[in-house]
Amino acid sequence: MQDFVNRDIAVCGVSLDSVEENRAFAEKFAFPFPLLCDTDAQMSVAFGAASGPDDQYASRYTFVIGADGVVEQAIDTKDPAGQAAALLESIG
Hints:
- This protein is 33% helix and 18% strand.
- It is an alpha+beta fold and 92 residues long.
- The chain has one domain (2-91): 3-Layer(aba) Sandwich (Glutaredoxin).
- It has a two-stranded parallel sheet with strand order 1-2.
- Strand 3 (61-65) and strand 4 (71-76) form a beta hairpin.
- The longest helix is centred in the N-terminal third of the chain and has 11 residues, at 19-29.
- The two termini are 15 Å apart.
């Protein structure tokens, strides 16, 4: 995580869960970044990670968004293990 901080890269997670569910999940797994709540699925639908507000889960994606707000990369994340290192390498 420190490698992202050193490169001035903000990291957050987004899920369809409630604030309480996200808080419990983050505490259980000691997440070092915030989890945002998309309970109405608007963001997940806009980014193609969910098909509609009735979805129970969003697909796991990683988005690299530049300082200008433009999505530079969209990565379908099937297995998050090792993804952080690969992402850091890909963005230089």
